């Protein structure tokens, strides 16, 4: 904190630079009654007069923060005296209690105990944490036998050991021989920890279900005359059952497995039984029957929303590392592309090569994170609040993806030394004399990826038109009741952008693949989740193609090529194929 005398010319310089600062005038030997606070703008400080405070017997303490002056006064050792304020400028002591921002309070910001073993009560008050209710999952016992051969089932079993997931295996009447079994005190049944076992009930029309939880034996039951048995006569027999003389009994057994899972309020029944999977919406009331592949995606999303990023039973990744690994999996060409940009910079080329390549990859990773938030907002009862969250995340996905494409175009501009400012480079600038035509004369193959009629051009059109809604009429939320009487949120395409978007979608897999449904000749609705998923996959595929076609290897000498980074082979590395494949299974991309 600077201290000046009245005649020090530096004082006037300080006040000009800090007009909102504070000046405390006091004697060289401070006394409680000699403290006068001024504003740095105070005219009285600039007056040259014979007043005692203008002499060098007084000093002027200057600070842009009142707290610094208050601490200096408190450190003088004469208690906490009031500071007199100037009657001319009438500066007032700021009310420090008005400084409400959390970062002003270190304990709130950093927590009571910054160690990794701190309890939840010791963590920072405003640290982001999401606590979802426990997920209850029932897995058919025979899938355990396939876990050694099926890596998806193996991975699912590892993830479902994570708290707060409640996991049970459905074992029918008896647990496996190696399970630790206990006899139920009030019946002749047995029960095993982690297993859901069914037995004939004490009443002919009830089937008992036994399981252990919190070191206690629980018993529930379901009604054998559940009205859903009528579906056994109505719903078609799955093709895989049609040559089985016991098809009717198989379907009845399938239904009973679903009823058993519903008895304990399970969220998911993981099964490979076609009767349950094909008729889930008709049969299920409170439990969803899903395949192991779908279950893995749902469990992965559930854990990620609670900041749990697991790739196996023992290994967790940080959030940033998880999505970066996912991005590398979706854009495998990024290894040599980003590494080549770094090597060219080291050889004396434009440093923007490094910054722009990093921006491309970062924005792709952010788009993947926004996709998770969009999926979460689409997976709860739909109302005005969730509509706002869903469309906000869809906006963010579009902005991140377009940002990644724009940054990659600027990289191409620098690599091929095109004329003009690289900040104006963009793949969609294909008009006569536009940027894309300049690129075409240097690399026709690269330019053809986004030329008229190409798959890349269609993706650019869809992404560009939806992204540009941020400048005008946005996607409008609308709620519709589906055939199963569920309320779904859709977005209505703006009228003036509809034709371009629909034509590009029709040429890129069709409207069904993009989640676009027609209500009439003039009104089209878009399911944000389906649309966002397809847009993300198609755009990242295009980014990968663009990176490959830039042929950055051709711009390097042999020594530089030998230094290009390659995908790690060691399975313990978070960027290895082992980790990448598991991350991709979780994301369902």
Helix-strand layout with pairing:
Layout: E1 3-5, H1 9-17, E2 22-27, E3 36-39, H2 43-46, E4 58-63, H3 66-74, E5 84-85, H4 106-110, E6 136-140, H5 151-159, E7 166-170, E8 181-183, E9 190-192, E10 195-200, E11 206-213, E12 216-223, H6 231-234, H7 247-263, E13 268-270, H8 274-278, H9 280-283, E14 288-290, H10 292-304, H11 319-330, H12 334-346, H13 352-378, H14 384-415, H15 435-440, H16 444-448, H17 455-467, E15 476-481, E16 487-492, H18 495-506, E17 516-518, E18 524-526, H19 528-549, H20 558-562, H21 577-587
Parallel strand pairs: 3-5, 6-7, 6-13, 7-10, 13-14
Antiparallel strand pairs: 1-4, 2-3, 2-4, 8-9, 10-11, 11-12, 15-16, 16-18, 17-18
Describe the protein's architecture and organization.
- This protein is an alpha/beta fold and 589 residues long.
- The chain folds into three domains: 3-94, no CATH class; 136-304, no CATH class; 333-470 and 532-566, no CATH class.
- The protein has 21 helices and 18 strands.
- Helix 13 (352-378) runs antiparallel to helix 14 and helix 17 packs across helix 19 (528-549).
- The radius of gyration is 34 Å and the shape is extended.
- The mean pLDDT is 84.
